[in-house]
């Protein structure tokens, strides 16, 4: 399935109450005559027809999400039935028209609504920060299973110390933190907008005390040095940019026009950032520490061969999992042999300091 296909799945997967219409000023705008007095159901039909005529994917779902959002609900189905047939106010009609015109310009629904659910957390979304995809929830669930089942990934302070490379909106880090109450997370991203959004989402969810968010490009030489204050990691998790460069052109307009290409483009074989994460992991992970990666279906084989050509890293591909479409998309890589410290053997000591807020 193409990336937009997966975004569509995300579009269809929301439920319950969503944000509402705060922040939109009322004005003297009057709807064009044919729209005045229409109900929510009629508005959905109207905008579905407009979207279909203009070739907008998932026309009905898009219009339902927009109308529901303006009426203060997460999905159209979760609206009180009385609201389906009640005539909308001029202000509501204006809001719906404004949001629908964004959709006509192929803006993803998640950016239009400004928030989206991931693992039961409501996260703020803003372009160009990558929109979390539903399969990444499967990656998080795998990490949670492993942490729960395996005592050796539990850190000295009672919970694992986790590094996320490329945190985007903070979806992975914040859902791990919320479901592993003893864990601490270091989240890095090279994008300024991603760092700001992760900060904001951490504050919204009151998880800021257990996460350290740092701007960092892991492909830069010496990036390992930024992690020295925390000591060896129990776990590294990443949904890195992994799209093969030649596939970037084929991405849907929603993705190409609004999401940061640096979040997607993994270079010629989609491995540019992945190989740096693996090299970094070799230095940062404790003995038997784990890396969990989301990748392209061609990567399990490519990464397996790459690791065999780099025995110096002491990393083994121990398991591959398939996504809900049956494609091999998630990797568990484990460090074997004793942790050999940073290039300069610079770990401060056996007790890593507390991750500051
Ligand atoms: C596919 S997105 C994943 C975002 C988030 N983890 C999620 O799953 O929704 C990849 C993220 O990696 C970041 N990134 C790309 N290259 C990077 C690098 N060299 N160092 C650190 N972060 C990087 C991008 O800015 C982007 O936020």
From TrEMBL:
Residue span(s) of domain Methyltransferase small: 162-247
Keywords: Methyltransferase, S-adenosyl-L-methionine, Transferase
Pfam families in alphabetical order: MTS, PrmC_N
The reaction(s) this protein catalyses: L-glutaminyl-[peptide chain release factor] + S-adenosyl-L-methionine = N(5)-methyl-L-glutaminyl-[peptide chain release factor] + S-adenosyl-L-homocysteine + H(+)
Region named Disordered: 335-357
EC annotation from Swiss-Prot or TrEMBL: 2.1.1.297
GO molecular function: nucleic acid binding; peptide chain release factor N(5)-glutamine methyltransferase activity; protein-glutamine N-methyltransferase activity
Domain annotation Release factor glutamine methyltransferase N-terminal: ranges: 42-114
GO biological process: methylation; translational termination
Keyword Acetylation annotated: no
Name used for this protein in its record: peptide chain release factor N(5)-glutamine methyltransferase
Organism: Equus caballus
Lineage: Eukaryota, Metazoa, Chordata, Craniata, Vertebrata
């Amino acid at each position: 399935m193409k990336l937009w296909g997966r975004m569509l799945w995300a579009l269809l997967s929301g439920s319950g109450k969503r944000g509402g219409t705060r922040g939109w000023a009322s004005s003297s705008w009057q709807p064009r005559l044919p729209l005045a007095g229409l109900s929510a159901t009629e508005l959905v039909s109207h905008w579905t027809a407009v979207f279909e005529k203009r070739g907008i994917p998932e026309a009905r779902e898009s219009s339902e999400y927009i109308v529901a959002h303006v009426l203060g609900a997460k999905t159209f189905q979760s609206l009180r039935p009385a609201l389906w047939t009640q005539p909308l106010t001029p202000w509501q009609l204006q809001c719906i028209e404004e949001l629908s015109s964004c959709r006509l310009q192929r803006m993803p629904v998640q950016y239009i609504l400004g928030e989206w659910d991931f693992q039961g957390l409501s996260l703020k979304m803003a372009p160009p920060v990558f929109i979390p995809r539903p399969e990444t929830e499967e990656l998080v669930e795998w990490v949670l299973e492993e942490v729960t089942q395996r005592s050796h990934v539990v850190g000295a302070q009672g919970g694992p110390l986790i590094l996320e490379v490329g945190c985007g909106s903070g979806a992975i880090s914040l859902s791990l933190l919320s479901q592993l109450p003893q864990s601490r997370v270091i989240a890095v991203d090279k994008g300024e907008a991603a760092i700001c959004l992760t900060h904001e989402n951490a504050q919204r969810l009151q998880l800021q005390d257990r996460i350290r968010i740092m701007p960092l490009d892991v492909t830069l030489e010496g990036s390992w040095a930024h992690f020295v204050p925390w000591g060896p990691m129990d776990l590294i998790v990443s949904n890195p940019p992994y799209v093969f460069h030649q596939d970037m052109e084929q991405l849907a307009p929603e993705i190409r026009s609004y999401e940061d290409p640096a979040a997607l483009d993994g270079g010629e074989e989609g491995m540019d950032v992945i190989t740096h994460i693996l090299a970094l992991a070799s230095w940062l992970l404790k003995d038997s520490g784990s890396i969990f990666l989301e990748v392209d279906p061609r990567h399990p084989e490519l990464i397996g061969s790459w690791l065999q050509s780099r025995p110096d890293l002491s990393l083994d591909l121990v398991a591959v999992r398939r996504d809900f479409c049956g494609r091999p998309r998630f990797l568990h890589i484990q460090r074997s042999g004793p942790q050999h410290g940073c290039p300069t053997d610079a770990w401060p000591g056996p007790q890593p300091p507390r991750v500051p807020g």
